[in-house]
Known about the structure:
The chain is mainly beta and 401 residues long.
Amino acid sequence: MNIRHVSSLLIIGAMLTGATLAATGCDAGPPLVSASITPDAISPNADGVEDVAVIAYALRRPAEVSIYFIERYDETKTRHYFRDHEDRSALEYSAYFSGVVNGRILPDGDYTCAVEAVDDAGMGAVIELPFAIRGGDPVALDIVDLSVFPLTFSPNRDGVNDRVKISYRLTKDATIIVTVLNRETGERYPVDLDAKAEAGVQQHDWEGGVDLGAPPPPNGFYTVTVEARDLVGQYAVAGVPLTITNGGVPLAEIIHAEFWPESVPLGQKVAVTITVRNTGNVAIRTQGPASGYTYKNNENFNTVGYFESPGCFRVAVDFEGNTISRVYPYRWAVSKRTDLAPGDWDYLQPGEEVTITGYIEFAEPPPQGASDAPYFWVGLEHEHVGHVNDRMYPTQITFGF
């Protein structure tokens, strides 16, 4: 064997043995090598001067680490945990401490900062460091009197419990996050994210997304959650229950309409037949007058006592040269019921179809200068929301006065 080659192997073996011994030597001793806190006194009041301390520590092997504070003169030795038995690898660490423990700033005073590490074999070590808090923000951050109304919410744009009002009071300025949590699936739905809020009463109006045409959260049990964080780092969380039922995007359409006759003498009626289908997955609310009702041509839904109701669906008729000051002045319920008095409601269920017949009696001639052969058309009104179908089946009708 070549002597030079043997010498090389001996040298490499010696190096490996030395490295192994060195590694074994470095791993001996307690898991916590060192710890420090800088500065040793802070004034957590968001003025930008000594608001935060840096806690630095090093581990020689993996360990479970706790960092806690004990008030110097507290005879009970209550521990205020900043890090509570958290697993860490053998590295150097820096943790930033703003005086906040469990969402609250510790009161001004003298403390001991303890950094404790315990390895898998149960060997542990604690390094205690003097620490003080001076001039901390005296105002605690709280979310007070959180409530929602109504407690049962049906986001379907039918005008009944379509929106939920979330109200609470903040004790100080904060950044807030408001979400609705599905208690079964864990999915969160945003109400307001990362909004700046001043101290005082806060309110949020939530409709579940249906105003944007999006499907609302599924029916079920939820928690409305408000999270708040101030400039100092204090935080607060509060929640209240909410039930969602009958949610959905209302969808309906006119599938056929017809006017007759197309020539009418004074004192006679024009009839209109309109067929509507609920094409959505939620019932749509409607109100009278019922199918078969006759309007005089100088009347409208308001003058006969069937006032607009936000969220209601009604079929309607308008015409060229309308001077009644109401868009679609003649309206009828999307319902098979014939007994709908003012204030009564009915519902057209998903997939259901209904045909309505309405009449307009021409008790007086059109205004002077108006056409003797105006166009009439039909529409589907979602009251206080918009025209679902507009200006459909236009038909010219001639009047003989």
